[in-house]
């Protein structure tokens, strides 16, 4: 496997304005995401794990030696989570899912609005740093919950198809303490086409 790299944003730093501001995107991608990658590499380079995809490391955290387990969990999680975050947002996006994902959301949550309410409540209710997640469970169902820090659902056997970063570094420059406003605005940049693709892949 080629050495892990920081994927560039799939759009410009200012592309998600006015919902997510350019200064936040610059520091979030170039500094925070880069640091997760750097620290993951520091932990695994020269070990038997350096060529294992980071998602696999997170799925089997219990098998990682204790000496580097916390680094893999935190920085490997940070690396993987932000890769998903950037690719599931887009300018001129938002709206609602379509196709199979729309059907599954209706079946699991009753309606798209009910899903949004549940997801926003998970994001708002996460005490301190963490993420809200929409996942596909092992049984193939959809579920919503939050996890602290950079923990990724794959460690619990679920596949994340959408995540919302509610670390303060994700919103503080623009929104300060107004996390609920950040969450409400974020729906305008969710790339449901991409989330639908990830849903299809996770169900295979
Ligand atoms: Mn972040």
Short description:
Helices cover 49% and strands 10% of the residues.
Q: What is the residue-mean pLDDT, rounded to a whole number?
A: 97
What would CATH call the homologous superfamily of the largest domain? Iron/manganese superoxide dismutase, C-terminal domain
Class from helix and strand fractions: mainly alpha
What is the multimeric organization of the chains shown?
Answer: single chain
Count of discrete domains:
2
> How is the largest sheet built, in terms of strand order?
2-1-3
H-E string: HHHHHEEEHHH
> pLDDT under 50 segments (min length 5)?
none
Assess the beta-strand content as a share of residues.
Answer: 5-15%
Bound molecules: manganese (II) ion
Q: Over all CA atoms, what is the radius of gyration?
A: 17 Å
The CATH topology of the largest domain turns out to be minor pseudopilin epsh fold
For the record, the CATH architecture of the largest domain stands as 3-Layer(bab) Sandwich
Count, helices: 8
Give the C-level CATH assignment of the largest domain: Alpha Beta
Distance N to C terminus:
24 Å
Secondary-structure blueprint:
Blueprint: H1 22-44, H2 54-59, H3 66-87, H4 99-109, H5 112-125, E1 130-136, E2 142-148, E3 159-165, H6 172-175, H7 179-186, H8 192-203
Antiparallel strand pairs: 1-2, 1-3
Helix pairs in contact: 1-3, 4-5, 4-8
Structure, explained:
The two termini are 24 Å apart. The mean pLDDT is 97. α1 (22-44) runs antiparallel to α3 and α4 crosses α8 (192-203). This protein folds into two domains: 22-87, Orthogonal Bundle (Helix Hairpins), CATH 1.10.287.990; 99-203, 3-Layer(bab) Sandwich (minor pseudopilin epsh fold). It contains eight helices and three strands. It has helices at residues 22-44, 54-59, 66-87, 99-109, 112-125, 172-175, 179-186, 192-203; strands at residues 130-136, 142-148, 159-165. It is mostly helical and 204 residues long. The protein binds manganese (II) ion (MN). Manganese (II) ion binds at residues 28, 32, 82, 165, 167, 169-170.
């Amino acid at each position: 496997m080629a050495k892990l790299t920081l994927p560039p944003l799939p759009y410009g730093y200012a592309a998600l304005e006015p919902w997510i501001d350019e200064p936040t995107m610059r520091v979030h991608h170039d500094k925070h995401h880069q640091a997760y990658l750097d620290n993951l590499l520091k932990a695994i380079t020269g070990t038997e794990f350096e060529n294992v995809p980071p998602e696999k490391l997170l799925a089997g955290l219990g098998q990682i030696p204790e000496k580097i387990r916390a680094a893999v969990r935190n920085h490997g999680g940070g690396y993987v989570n932000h890769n998903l975050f950037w690719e599931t947002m887009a300018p001129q996006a938002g709206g609602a899912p379509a196709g199979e994902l729309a059907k599954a959301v209706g079946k699991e949550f009753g309606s798209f609005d009910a899903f949004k309410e549940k997801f926003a409540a998970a994001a708002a209710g996460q005490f301190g740093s963490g993420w809200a997640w929409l996942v596909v469970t092992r049984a193939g169902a959809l579920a919503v919950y939050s996890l602290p820090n950079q923990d990724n659902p794959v460690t619990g056997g679920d596949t994340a198809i959408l995540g919302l970063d509610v670390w303060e570094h994700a919103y503080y420059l623009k929104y300060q303490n107004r996390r609920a406003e950040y969450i409400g605005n974020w729906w305008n940049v969710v790339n449901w086409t991409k989330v639908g693709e990830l849903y299809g892949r996770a169900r295979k």
